[in-house]
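Case study B.
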Amino acid sequence: MRIAITSTGKEMDSAIDPRFGRARYIIIVEKDGTMVEAMDNVQGANALSGAGIQAGKLLADRKVDVLMTGHCGPNAFRTLEAAGIKVVVEQSGTVKQALERLQLGNVKFSSKANVEAHW
Amino acid sequence: MIISVASGKGGTGKTTIATSLAAVLGSRAQLIDCDVEEPNCHILMKPVLKTREVVSLPVPVVDMDRCTRCGKCGEVCRFSAIIVIGDQVLTFPELCHGCGGCWLLCREKAIREGSRELGVVETGFAGPVEFVQGVLRVGEAMSPPLIRAVKAKVDPDKIAILDAPPGASCPVINTVSGSDFIIMVTEPTPFGLNDLSIAVDAVTQLGIPLGVVLNRADIGDNGVQVFCRQKDIPILAEIPNDRNVAEGYARGDLLVTSAPNYIGLFLQMIQRVQNLVGSQQQAVRIGAL
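Model:
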């Protein structure tokens, strides 16, 4: 199982970036904590519009199963849902802490977006 | 001739100036409200509207039976309005700018043109003045295509006065481009000056001659005058902070109705603009020789 966690930096100890589409980095790890990639999301961070949709597509291409982030808008959510990626929102603290919460089963998967669309 | 009235800052008196200019021109004028997000010229002009047409934008509709999920449509769309993800094709009509790239590129002809309603264009008359306005649909974020539809009503045989939205972004640039002259309405305060200088920087790129109208000219400071001198921008008129004018506006009356003593000032303003446009065209002609 692959988990994507939005991050302000490239390390497991970096703080979570609350934004999804415009997150600075997206860290992809296996469930045991092995880092697959610290994806530089500079393109999404500067996108004109549809940042969440593009980020969703990138995660789908990388065969991610779960996304952990702060906020997820409706367009991003629809994209992630179409790709079969489960979403955990309202995450804070560090990337590592978020992963631990998932490993312990201490998270709730969302059934809908938790913020409005914005452009 | 097309004269745009812009301001940079909201609440400076753009609509007051645009409507009174049109009113003093009478049947020679066409007043076109391009502030489609919040049109308000009609409040002062009180037009009788006669026609109403819906303006929409073409958006993609995908036939999933023909689609091979090749993904070309998603690659060409810089606004992410269409994307192939797994075995699905998602469309986001509200992000679509209607360029048609996706259905032109689709080899399987799996995408057809649907439509998304942007708003309406309404036309009519306010006394002798021809009146046009656009009204953006509530919830619609993209105004430039509607502004272009509104501007398509410009009659080249009249003096078209275009009331621009406030600010200095796409809707303003869409309104003023193609104009012969831009009147920048501002007030002599630091706020007015700040927004004026941003707007002037933006529209200068278009190479259209411009002039400033100072509204509430006797308040604030002389920063705007200094700026105009430095930039070589003519000040076309100064309108004092007149209680009569403010009360008239609050009642929904035109400036030249509540304070008819300003009619001459507006006629002079048009004369001045015509002269400036004329000399500009002359300069271009001489330059071309």
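Chain B has a mean pLDDT of 94. The remaining cases will be described in the next quarterly update.
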